Amino acid sequence: MFTLIRQELYKLIKKTSTWICLLLVLIINIGLSIVSHAMPEHFLPKELFVADYGANTFISLILISTTASIVASEFEYGTIRNILFQSYSRQRILISKWITILIYSVSMYIFFAIFTFLDKLVLFPNKFSLTDKVQGGRLWQYWLQTNWADLLTTWLILSVVFLIAALLKKGSTAIIVGIVGYFAVALIGPFMNFVVSKWHFMKWNPLNFMNYTDQIANHTVSHTTLLSLNEMVLGNIVYIIIFLAIGLLIFSNKEV
Length: 256
What we know:
The chain has helices at 2-14, 16-38, 45-50, 55-76, 79-84, 90-123, 139-167, 171-187, 189-198, 212-217, 222-225, 229-252; strands spanning 133-134, 137-138. By secondary structure, it is mainly alpha-helical.
């Protein structure tokens, strides 16, 4: 298992696209923080700080693309046969990919959280403080909670992407489906809110748990989701496990 994880991490690190994507998000992070410093009345520094100056959205898109390609490309290019010939089970192969993406995603969030903190120190040393009171707590707590919520809800999407990628043999198709699904969730949000208000049992559907980050930002969202923050966390984790398990079953029985 550790050998598979090392191999996956090595392939990820050696890919040029990994570093290009990292650089692009870094440019967006720095650029938006500079714009916020120049025009604070239009680009609110404190609110953008909580969102890591735009980095989190792009991190999600990068992780969707990476997740889709790391699974589907094995079948697209036939490399899955080479791995199977090394006497690794399909379950271990896919689980190693889960762990690789987990390490990658956590690393990305930590890296940009640190860089966002540096943005604050350089550009906004006195504009706002991490101990400012917001959302019934301190800014630093709200910031970390938001990053945690983004990571968790992103993993809910990634678990579905793992499932879709296990079904498909084209990495590009899996990427398109994953990214379209990411934006579709936001578009059908108002309709889903109506459905939940109409039939309360629908509050347990996975799309409703995507509102976790919004509910941290605005606690009144709980009137729409009909869920507490603890239920949001538990529901996300349960659905992640369910979708990963289904993907594992599909991957284990897929034709090479």
